[in-house]
Write a structure and sequence with these properties.
- By secondary structure, the protein is α/β, with parallel strands linked by helices.
- The chain contains 16 helices and 11 strands.
- The protein has a 6-stranded parallel sheet with strand order 4-5-8-9-10-11.
- The chain is globular and about 50 Å long.
- InterPro entries: ACMSD, Amidohydro-rel, Metal_Hydrolase.
- Keywords: Lyase.
- It is an enzyme of class 4 (lyase).
């Protein structure tokens, strides 16, 4: 049977969340930080770019038409990372995740055979994370999207152990998608906040999960790293060398760091066929999934063509194009 073409990296915009947080204490400071991190030139481009894509981000009919044009059968839809709002207090954070889960589920329910969804958890309040994940699953979503860190907390923080435990037990999908980079104003020109910041945050977050032993304690986690895992997969040899030669680097995890890449999943959005081939080499063809970052400008307008450009074997092409995601997401093969 032929597997559907599945895009695991696609976003939905949820205006109700922004209406909810508008004017709340902390919101303006968070927006100011985001502005400093990105710089005025980037914001001047990003605003109109998002504006012209609002129909694709909010209208299911427009989304489906775009998917048809791309040759994509199924999207795994996650909220725009701008909706994380990790600055929010507990009361607001609960309102945000409940609204995000509800509205994302409603968006996907308009075409349940073609759209599957992910919700949100408030990483800034680890005590709420499990109930937020359960809320997402209760709405029929397949899991949740998380950033690379929360203020003052890395993903290696022991406070997240209950979240990893619940995600592993439930079979929930975790989609690791950074928002913002703590290099801050060093990246505030030439859109470095995204081109350098995103892959850096992916590499740091995955390294925390690996070196801290989270993946040893939770080998069944279904975690997809956006942007091909950032810089880590193509530079994993340096991590292996440190683990092998330095007792401080090797103290937290049981195996070579490179071995954990075969326990994770990665989207294919690396913008270079040679990098994609290397990602497949180090992680395995069964661990890479088609991803487009639909519909943003840093995504792939034709993700299947980008995949074909890597000149994979037919078996590997079929796996990455949709067979892997079909198995991970328990999709019925057509």
């Amino acid at each position: 049977m032929t597997a559907p073409t599945v895009d695991v990296h696609a976003h939905v915009l949820l205006p109700a969340i922004e209406a909810l947080v508008a004017g709340l204490p902390g919101h303006e400071a968070a927006k100011a930080l985001d502005a400093r991190r990105n710089g005025a030139e980037a914001l001047a481009v990003s605003g109109p770019m998002v504006g012209e894509r609002i129909p694709k981000l909010t209208d299911v009919a427009v989304r489906l038409a775009a998917m048809d044009q791309q040759g994509v059968d199924v999207q795994l839809v996650s909220p725009s990372p701008s909706h994380y709002h990790y600055w929010a207090d507990e009361e607001t954070a609960e309102q945000v995740y409940r609204l995000a889960n509800e509205t994302t589920a409603a968006h996907c329910a308009a075409s349940p055979k073609r759209l599957r969804g992910l919700g949100l958890v408030p990483l800034q309040h680890p005590d709420l994370a499990v109930e937020a994940l359960d809320d997402a699953l209760g709405h029929g979503l397949l899991g949740v999207e998380i950033s690379s860190h929360a203020p003052g907390r890395e993903l290696s923080d022991p406070a997240y152990e209950p979240l990893w435990t619940r995600a592993e037990e439930s079979g929930a999908v975790l989609f690791l998608h950074p928002f913002g980079c703590t290099l801050d104003e060093r990246l505030d020109r030439w859109y470095l906040s995204n081109t350098v910041g995103q892959p850096t945050e992916n590499a740091v977050a995955l390294s925390h999960l690996i070196f801290s032993g989270v993946l040893d304690r939770h080998p069944g986690l279904k975690l997809i790293a956006a942007h091909g895992g950032g810089y880590l997969p193509t530079h994993i040899g340096r991590s292996d060398h440190a683990w092998s030669t330095r007792p401080d680097a090797g103290a937290g995890c049981a195996h070579l760091p490179s071995s954990y890449l075969k326990r994770l999943y990665f989207d294919s959005l690396v913008h270079d066929p040679h990098v994609l081939r290397e990602l497949i080499r180090v992680a395995g063809a069964d661990r890479v999934l088609l991803g487009s970052d639909f519909p943003f400008d840093m995504g792939a307008d034709d993700p299947v063509a980008a995949l074909r450009a890597a000149r994979l074997s037919e078996a590997d092409l079929d796996a990455v194009r949709g067979r892997n995601a079909s198995a991970l997401l328990n999709l019925t093969l057509a």
